[in-house]
UniProtKB/TrEMBL annotation:
Keyword Iron-sulfur attached: yes
Name the UniProt record assigns to this protein: Rieske 2Fe-2S domain-containing protein
Source lineage: Bacteria, Pseudomonadati, Pseudomonadota, Betaproteobacteria, Burkholderiales
InterPro entries (alphabetical): Rieske_2Fe-2S (IPR017941), Rieske_2Fe-2S_sf (IPR036922), Ring_hydroxy_dOase_asu_C_dom (IPR015879), Rng_hydr_dOase-A (IPR001663)
Source organism, top-level taxon: Bacteria
Record organism: Trinickia violacea
Record family assignment: Belongs to the bacterial ring-hydroxylating dioxygenase alpha subunit family.
GO molecular function, one term: iron ion binding
Key words, A-Z: 2Fe-2S, Iron, Iron-sulfur, Metal-binding, Oxidoreductase
Length: 460
């Protein structure tokens, strides 16, 4: 593998916006977007820095001082509950020597962070608290240096319990970035009679040897289930034939049988694309439509939200909602997938169950069942997708046609404005992702690293 500096210096994409634009040709995309190491470096610097990326859920840090750690495009982050009840996201890096402040996946730091290396301490909002041997810094340039300012805070926005961060100092505001697709989160939270969710039941993690965009595209691809997951739905169909018509079928069969839905089914299911790469697959119906509800649940929703709102909530059961670039939501079952890019050919996917507070316990059990069946590393469904992703990652490097087709239902006068309603089979959902990808990749970073270098030169 080439050294990172060599990748950067030899890349044709870093200083040529035209080269990046040429990778997406309106109805096809060049294979370099999945294979090129330099492009992945640029994604980390530009796309993931300038977009609003999901970090965690408020329910994961219920008490003051509670934290979780994660990373976005190689940047280590800590999400921590403040004494006033708010949630902040900070760079998980001491301002002194750069040591990681907390390395556990979760925990409680009390009232302050204490660096394990030299014991510099910081308030939970990142402000500096104490420095050992303080007298030794008198007369030095510490006070004029970034190291004296504490931990670097990241732009943070919380919506219905979902916490997002933007690494860059400037960029599109949160509400403008997501727009109407935030109604997906409203619907999800309102499936709780209390209007609140919590992460429950642990997390499944799968590392795949493929580019992260392959997984994102697959989230909104309605054409692959009938062929890719044929072994799963055919087995479920064969098993269902052994049940009597008046005998309740197991939840597992109810959840697996719809994977055999026809192309015509998805054509009618509908989809909607939004600005900034977001989209919903299954606006009219999906494989989750009409699945059973626990006794008393509908009545509890109606009592909490009113009959009209309860009916609206339950009528919305899309296949998947994609909050670009890394958050995939299923409204029912209440499932959340977080896509975390690790390298150009390596992706971590985390699968969480969301429990609607105040709803029957069966709701969470159905979600946990679905996650085990469909998304766990030993799933009868997910291993089909992973096999395709990993072989595609290898095969795309082969000689021959360098373009990947996104032509299905493309029209030369395709509207670029969003939102747009289309059929569930339309590959505009993927084309929309890449339009946003090109836009974010052409933007230069906010210049913070350049300013830091200039400031250090001034101090010198």
């Amino acid at each position: 593998m080439r050294e990172q500096s060599e990748v950067r210096s030899s890349s044709p994409y870093r200083d040529d916006p035209g080269a990046i634009r040429a990778l997406f040709d309106d109805d096809r995309v060049h294979r370099d977007v999945y294979l090129d190491e330099a492009l992945f470096e640029l994604e980390c610097e530009r796309l993931f820095a300038r977009s609003w990326v999901y970090v965690g859920h408020e329910s994961q840090v219920p008490k003051s001082g509670d934290f979780i750690t994660t990373s976005i495009a190689g940047q280590p982050l800590v999400m921590v509950r403040q004494a006033d009840g708010s949630v902040r996201v900070l760079l998980n890096r001491c301002a002194h020597k750069g040591a990681m402040l907390v390395s556990a996946p979760s925990g409680n730091v009390g009232k302050f962070f204490r660096c394990p290396y030299h014991a510099w301490t910081y308030r939970t909002d990142g402000k500096p608290l104490a420095v050992p041997l303080r007298a030794g810094y008198e007369g030095t340039r510490l006070e004029a240096c970034e190291s004296s300012r504490g931990l670097e805070s990241v732009s943070t926005s919380t919506y219905r319990g979902f916490v997002f961060a933007r690494l860059a100092r400037d960029g599109v505001a949160f509400e403008a970035y997501f727009g109407d697709v935030l109604k997906v989160l409203d619907n999800l939270a309102d499936r709780s009679p209390a209007g609140e969710l919590r992460v429950a039941g642990g997390v499944f993690r799968s590392v795949m040897n493929c580019n992260w965009k392959m997984y994102v595209e697959n989230v909104v691809d309605a054409v692959h289930p009938i062929s890719t997951h044929e072994s799963a739905w055919q087995t479920a169909r064969d098993m269902s034939q052994t049940w009597e018509h008046d005998e309740p079928k197991p939840v597992a069969l109810e959840q697996l049988l719809p994977f055999g839905s026809s192309y015509d089914f998805y054509q009618q299911a509908g989809a909607r694309v939004f600005a900034h790469g977001h989209c919903i697959l299954g606006t009219q119906s999906s494989i989750h439509t009409g699945q059973g509800l626990p006794p008393g649940y509908r009545e509890a929703l109606a009592a909490a939200h009113g009959e009209s709102r309860a009916a609206e909530i339950l009528a919305f059961a899309p296949q998947n909602s994609m909050l670009f670039p890394t958050l995939a939501i299923k409204s029912t079952p209440q499932t959340m997938r977080v896509i975390r890019p690790l390298a150009v050919n390596r992706t971590l996917v985390e699968i969480f169950a969301l429990e609607p507070i105040g709803a029957p316990a069966e709701m969470l059990q159905r979600t946990l069942s679905y996650n085990r069946l469909v998304f766990s590393p030993m799933s009868v469904v997910a291993h089909d997708d992973i096999q395709v992703f990993e072989t595609m990652q290898a095969a795309l490097a082969a000689r021959g046609n360098p373009w990947v087709s996104l032509h299905r239902e493309h029209r030369s006068d395709e509207k670029q404005d969003a939102p747009v309603d289309v059929s569930g089979n339309n590959e505009i959902l993927m084309r929309n992702l890449f339009r946003s990808w090109v836009e974010l990749m052409q933007r230069r970073p906010d210049g913070s690293s350049e300013r830091a270098r200039e400031h250090c030169n001034e101090l010198a």
